[in-house]
Amino acid sequence: MNLNSFIQFDDVSQRNEALRVTLAITVCMLLGKLLNLTSPVYLALYPTIIMTKSKDYSWSGLAKTFTPTLLAASAALVVSNCFSQHPFIIWTISLLFFDWMRRRATTPAKMGAMLMPTFNWILVIIFAQHTSADITTRIHEILASMVITTVVCKTAVALFPIASKGKPTLFEPKTVTAQQRLIALTLIGIGVGFLLQVEMLSATFCLVPVIAAATQSQANAFRQVVERRFVTQVGGCALAFIFTLLLSGHQTNIGLYALLLGGLVFMLASLMAKADFTLRDLHSDALLATMLPIQLYIGANEMGLERTFLRGWQLAVTLAILFTLYKLFTTNQRQSHLRKD
């Protein structure tokens, strides 16, 4: 694939979408570095999700997107502070929260919307359990990251308008069954319980694909999520590894960092803008999976190559476990049907 494939677009809207995504993510990630935040990762997580998943960029729409996440993180802070010496109680309350979120996810849009609140809840309780970091400061940084993301994304959308794609497809709400709730609680609950007991902070982000897979309503959808996430998550770590090698020795050169980062984001955003509906999620997931390790591990005094590799390995193992569970479940189902016949 040559350079022309990234700079040639079918229409102005595709070009503007790639440019707005590039501008928003690059600026937010640069601010995360320059502001010396304790947790700059939020300025990679939030703009990437907003620019690739959000459909409403109005002030009220963005506030509506961020409010559940802020409330979930704040509630998790209260729970962690009240029961800091009792991880089992924290885990039990977390299960109740996860089940409440899953019961409310009756449409694909609501299933997608539960990702950020659920994951931010997990981040707060895990880091509160295993670090001495001031979690209250972390909540302040979450709020600051949301405000920065909102302003930057609104500016990018205003600078690079795209043609309206019409009203999004509306899906009829479907009641979440007890089995679906049990699957979600089991997968997410086991992951959170393990991380509460074992200090393995680097594996916390492995729960993102676990949440995405656990909320699927059908076995085939579960399999597709796992297979696609293997490509995007592990592939994203590989791209971040290559990016780190290119930047090696020059990580303090903010101009070079911005140039390489903007080029990488533009490449992935261009592929997403030109993709059809079925492949957009693939490219957006790859974009998120690439940006997170870059923002997490590259610092002024370290390149984070080892941690990027470890992240890719942990994600591969996590997804392999999920795929094995899928195979066991479907095999048992087939055997049950054969016995009935």
UniProtKB/TrEMBL annotation:
<feature type="transmembrane region" description="Helical">
    <location>
        <begin position="142"/>
        <end position="162"/>
    </location>
</feature>
<feature type="transmembrane region" description="Helical">
    <location>
        <begin position="254"/>
        <end position="273"/>
    </location>
</feature>
<keyword id="KW-0472">Membrane</keyword>
<protein>
    <recommendedName>
        <fullName>DUF2955 domain-containing protein</fullName>
    </recommendedName>
</protein>
<keyword id="KW-0812">Transmembrane</keyword>
<feature type="transmembrane region" description="Helical">
    <location>
        <begin position="312"/>
        <end position="329"/>
    </location>
</feature>
<dbReference type="Pfam" id="PF11168">
    <property type="entry name" value="DUF2955"/>
</dbReference>
<dbReference type="InterPro" id="IPR022604">
    <property type="entry name" value="DUF2955"/>
</dbReference>
<feature type="transmembrane region" description="Helical">
    <location>
        <begin position="113"/>
        <end position="130"/>
    </location>
</feature>
<feature type="transmembrane region" description="Helical">
    <location>
        <begin position="20"/>
        <end position="45"/>
    </location>
</feature>
<feature type="transmembrane region" description="Helical">
    <location>
        <begin position="230"/>
        <end position="247"/>
    </location>
</feature>
<keyword id="KW-1133">Transmembrane helix</keyword>
<feature type="transmembrane region" description="Helical">
    <location>
        <begin position="83"/>
        <end position="101"/>
    </location>
</feature>
<feature type="transmembrane region" description="Helical">
    <location>
        <begin position="182"/>
        <end position="210"/>
    </location>
</feature>
